[in-house]
Amino acid sequence: MTVAIKSVDALRNAGLVDDDPALDAVAQKYAVGITPAMLALIDPDDPDDPIARQFVPTAPELLTTPDERADPIGDLSHSPVEGIVHRYPDRVLLKAVHVCPVYCRFCFRREMVGPQGLGTLTPAELDAAIGYIAAHEEIWEVILTGGDPLVLSPRRLRAITERLALIPHVKIVRFHTRVPVVEPERIDADMIAALKASGKTTYLAVHANHPRELTEAATAAFDRMIEAGVMLISQTVLLRGVNDSVETLAALMRGFVENRIRPYYLHHPDLAPGTAHFRLGIEEGQALVSALRGRISGLCQPVYVLDIPGGHGKAPINAANVRGGDGCFTVRDWQGGEHPYPPTD
Ligand SMILES: *Cc1c(COP(=O)(O)O)cnc(C)c1O
Ligand code: SF4
Q1: What local confidence, expressed as pLDDT, does residue 77 receive?
Q2: Could you tell me the maximum CA-CA distance found in the chain, to the nearest angstrom?
Q3: Where does [4Fe-4S] cluster bind (predicted)?
């Protein structure tokens, strides 16, 4: 079994990068990490490998464009206590840890995650965060994210879910994680037990960006969770050079559905520093998403969303299929044909 890569030198030893000193500068700014499961998927002979592109650092990460920002989705403006982001009335993010099993080169929280990132909540900070949730009866859902919450040991994770289980107004506990895909062996019986807060419904959003990530080992991890009663949904970041084609997106969304994962969000890439080489235009994204409609099953349709910079939340940005007003509309079908509604014939 290969071991995880955590440095540029280890990448050089593995023959995945050259001697370019710019890469050392990149690694100084943004953490590097690739798990054995993801290393095994990389084809070292393919310079455009979509898995390598997500995890192997490159020199363009040193270029920051004027519209990029350290906190691209405005988490900090909605953080009442350390570790909590409360942007919408009925749900909060609980960020207990800022470590990940892999470090994605396009990460929207890249300035906060990693060994030099914001770290893990102290016991006192965790108490205050849970106290905040308990004190706010409008909080119906708690979303554990980070970093990646599943890097915590099952024991530490269980300590959190057991406390959430005691809060009557919290009904849903949701995890956002890359672990089932990038480190599927972590999803064992102890981990699954820790995900489940007694008396609550558990949802888990699987982050995957390319159909090759849905390996046999990942599938087995999904199965174990589903059989234990965890509801699975997907989240994908639309990325140039990784999944910016109709064929790739269709294969990925079908892969989710075949694995009993309901496609949920396709994220337009955020304005994170040094990620311009991953970004597409919104029109390009809309054209890709429109092409999925009709071509593949309705079960396979994600919602295309933009997290509005400045902390204004997510907005669906699918191309509009309806125009008009005053009771008189034009509706576009999946092949581009336009039809009046109500019909005129
Ligand atoms: C994305 C996000 C959520 C979850 O939004 P949903 O649309 O419910 O998936 C909640 N809070 C914050 C701060 C977020 O950024
Ligand atoms: S796993 Fe998530 S939080 Fe961690 S680096 Fe990747 S995108 Fe960022």
Answers
A1: 85
A2: 70
A3: 100, 104, 107
The bound ligand whose nearest atom lies closest to the alpha carbon of 31 is 2
Tokens (6 digits) for 341: 């509604």
pTM for this predicted structure: 0.97
Fold of the 65-318 domain:
TIM Barrel (3.20.20)
Residue ranges per structural domain of the chain: 65-318
Predicted confidence (pLDDT) at residue 101 exceeds the cutoff of 70: yes
Supply the pLDDT for residue 291.
95
Residue 313 CA: nearest ligand 1 atom is 15
Q: What is the pLDDT of residue 1?
A: 55
| Choice among 212, 265, 270, 304 that is catalytic | 270
Considering the chain, what is the average pLDDT of its residues?
96
Query: Cα torsion at 40, 27, 31, 235 (round to 10°)?
Result: -60
Instruction: Report in angstroms the alpha-carbon separations of 153 from 93, 192, 195.
Output: 19, 11, 11
- What gap in Å lies between CA 264 and CA 253, rounded to an integer? 10
Cβ-count burial 302-335 (b if 16+ within 10 Å, e if not)? bebbbbeeebeebeebbeeeeeeeeeeeeebeee
Residue nearest to atom 3 of ligand 2 (CA): 147
Measured CA to CA, the distance from residue 246 to residue 334 in angstroms comes to 14
Question: What is residue 317's three-state secondary structure?
Answer: coil
- Compute, in angstroms, the gap from residue 47 CA to the centroid of ligand 1: 35
Distance CA 249, CA 211 (A): 8
Q: Which of 104, 179, 209, 275 to mutate to test the pocket of ligand 2 (most atoms within 8 A of CB)?
A: 104
* SS3 readout for 52-89: HHHHCCCHHHHCCCCCCCCCCCCHHHHCCCCCEEEEEC
Q: Which residue has the tokens 């405005």?
A: 74
In Å, how far are 15, 213, 247 from 42, measured between CA atoms? Answer: 11, 10, 20
Given pLDDT bands bounded at 50, 70 and 90, which one contains residue 164? very high
**What does the DSSP assignment read for 234-256?**
EEEE--TTTT-SHHHHHHHHHHH
At 332 the three-state DSSP class reads strand
* Among protein residues, the one whose CA lies closest to atom 7 of ligand 1: 314
